[in-house]
Amino acid sequence: MDLLRRLRFREAVVDTIRRFFKGRGFLEVEVPLLSPHPIPEANIKLFAVDGGRERLYLLPSPELYMKPLLAQGLERIFTICPSFRQGEKGRFHLPQFTMLEWYGAGRDYSWLMEMVEELLPFVAQEASSMLPRGLTIDVTPPYPRLSMRRLFQELAGWDPWLEPNEERFDLDLVERIEPSLPDDRPVFLVDYPGWQGSLARSKPNREDGVERVELYLAGVELANGFSELTEKEEQRSRFERELQRMGEARGLPDRFLDAVDRLPPCAGMALGVDRLVMLLAGLGSVAETRPFSTFQ
Amino acid sequence: MYDSSDLRKGLKITIDGEPYIITEFQFSKPGKGQALYRCKLKNMITGYTMDRTYRSGDKFEPANLEEVRMQYLYNDSEGYHFMDLKTYEQVSISGEQLGEAVNFLKDNMEVDVLFFEGNPIDITLPNFVELEVVDAPPGEKGNTATGATKPAKLETGYELQVPLFINEGDVVKIDTRTGEYIERVKK
Would you tell me which residues 132-191 of chain A have a C-beta closer than 8 angstroms to some C-beta of chain B? Predict the structure, then answer.
């Protein structure tokens, strides 16, 4: 596909996503891309910006500003915005990429999975009409919901619920779990150990971990969602632990924590738009879905 | 020293004292996890390939490699001998190490010899070489459709498919990257 056709295709996918959410009563919101107090996440390196009196950070996802809107009573919101992560570059990564995030009040992560099972076929139908040879992936629902714990026990031979070993978890995920996922269909990885979802709500039985779901399509990680944690003190202590791990002198996002206190039960999901476009179009990298891939 | 963020396809690094080239590379960051750098690496001496996954903060020694223009002299039981045209210094490399390249080596041919920490490990041939045909039995009668070929043997012992009009004594041009016949140079 030449540049114009790739960009036309991308435009159609993004338009279709908007139509999907607006047709279901969601409000599209624009949120700031900068903040002095981002959510502490040890594995995400941020771009720091000179903000005059204070240092600002380009946000790695819109979550910081989306949840306070839920706390103010908005019930169904979505945004499609640029997100920034320093040092992430590869076939499936760019330091600036586009994120879709949506939230629903009074919902949990099973609702997120149902939404995905409606969203992907909706977008795929529009997309396939623009591809001379159609789609190479099959997004007919329902999608298998694989227990993360069982996957680890069967494919990696250990239980991350009993052994909080992050290095081993990531390595086995990449080397053993991901390669075993279907390469032409979506699949959900469901429920994570407690130490693997800093913003996710615990399962009814705390020892079962947290209500987190990851969507993989054609073996590529496409979206991450939680039943959101709504307890302020629990969230604060998880953030403090994360900051300690990072060893960085950065303040806690106090306003965000105040919002967590007022959150209704809710669920939210973040989906990589560039990856979705790439997989639908059968392209080899996320860079091919964008007019510019770097800052040069 | 390189660090993980320098890793990319084509980069040459030293692992356990041997030079490796990265033949496939993939940046990975599973879930909200740490950055992982997945590499397929080829040992530049043995040709053996392996998979390795590296993390942020890992360090790598660049492979100390150098290319020198040399002339091929001859081969014997010790291997294939090359001479530096400036210093007249001679080195030898085993046939096993050279692999397919021995099919295209002709006396006095100039090649680039690759050294790793002072030891010769490989050569880079010119893209095209001209070699004499030493055996080319006539093609089967009736099989004269355009593009028909027959087997032939070159002065280096290399055997390949050539057009039917090629005879013993002809000189042919070969693409060393594919090992295929390009054209007849002279009768």
Answer: 166-167, 169-171, 173-175, 178
Q: What is the tens place of the pLDDT at every residue in A46-100?
A: 999 999 999 999 999 999 999 999 999 999 999 999 999 998 989 999 999 999 9
Map tokens 């469901």 to a residue.
Answer: A190
Confidence at residue B147, expressed as pLDDT on a 0 to 100 scale: 67
Is the ipTM, as predicted for this complex, more than 0.95?
A: no
Chain A contacts of B40, Cβ < 8 Å? none
Q: Which of A171, A215, A242 to mutate to test the interface with B (most CBs of B within 10 A)?
A: A171
Residue type, B9: K
Six-digit token pair at B60? 């790598």
Could you say which residues from 242 to 261 on chain A have a Cβ atom under 8 Å away from some Cβ of chain B? none
| Cα separation, A72 vs A23, whole angstroms | 22
Backbone angles phi, psi at B151, to 5 degrees: -75, 150
For the CA atoms of A51, A54, A55, A56, what is the dihedral angle to 10 degrees? -60
**Helix, coil or strand: residue B61:** strand
Residue B146: what pLDDT?
A: 58
Q: Is the pLDDT of residue B187 over 70?
A: no
How many interchain CB pairs under 8 A, A with B?
A: 56
Residue B170 near residue B130, CB atoms below 8 Å: no
A173: DSSP letter: I
At A2-61, the pLDDT tens digits run: 999 999 999 999 999 999 999 999 999 999 999 999 999 999 999 999 999 999 999 999
pTM of the model: 0.83
Question: Mapping DSSP to helix (H, G, I), strand (E, B) and coil, where does residue A186 land?
Answer: strand
Q: Which of B32, B36, B56 lies closest to A174 in CB terms?
A: B36
Backbone angles phi, psi at A19, to 5 degrees: -60, -40
CA–CA distance from A56 to each of A101, A176, A253 (Å)? 22, 38, 12
For residue A67, the Cα-to-chain-centroid distance in whole angstroms is: 14
* CA–CA separation, B141 and B82 (whole Å): 44
What is the C-alpha separation between A213 and A223, in angstroms, rounded? 8
Alpha-carbon distance A91 to A88, whole Å? 10
